[in-house]
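Work package 3, deliverable 3.1, input record:
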Amino acid sequence: MIYSSELIKGTLKTIVLKLLADNKKMYGYEITQKVKELTFDKIQITEGALYPTLHALEDEGLVTTETEYIGKRMRKYYTLSPSGKTKTMEKVNELADFMDTMKFLLDIKPKQA
Amino acid sequence: MIYSSELIKGTLKTIVLKLLADNKKMYGYEITQKVKELTFDKIQITEGALYPTLHALEDEGLVTTETEYIGKRMRKYYTLSPSGKTKTMEKVNELADFMDTMKFLLDIKPKQA
DNA sequence: CCATATACATAAGAAAATTATGTATCTTTG
DNA sequence: CAAAGATACATAATTTTCTTATGTATATGG
């Protein structure tokens, strides 16, 4: 099962920021694969969504980049800036809060552990 | 605190469907007030978002409507159709699943390098 | 040698919200 | 009793953010 795409809307930036917080340094393609792996294919980030998001994060000063070459193939690594780290905490906390509210609103019972 | 609007994206339809499932019959303005009340003002649905959504639900056959007049003022009540009830369960379950996945994704501890 | 995977990027279009505007009625309060 | 605020609908213009499509290029496994 893959989540209907509308659910991803609004969470992509937070997902990317959190991955960068956990992994120090990642490149675009790696991020797509990591999300796919960690969610058992339920969330698949497309390149058309990811790259513009990464560029936006850079424009906002939340990440810095360094380019490396593996053979002749480019890799653009992204790393959180100090303000990016702060932003990540804010975004993750907000999303966690939002999910609690949604659980309450939708009267969703906690899953059996 | 009001959630940044991007978080609401993609969940509005599910919220509306669930409220209708719980309350049998509601009108637009009532829905905005109920959500505001249940979320302690954290989620505020704007009319510009709500009415098009309700019309879409109607076009999809997920709700039926009946118009009443309170004095001279119109109220358009919305009620789930049978397919609307099925859809509500699907949407709520999918969102619950998605939120579990997100919680896992955002709780990942840093990997040892 | 060719399909698949890796790796970036951008443009056109669609979806779904925000913001603004419009109409109108009812209620509270200074 | 006038004005402000709340109730109640609706739609249009704009913005944001995603999907889909396209483009370029290299590396690798069978």
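The longest helix of chain B spans residues 82-106.
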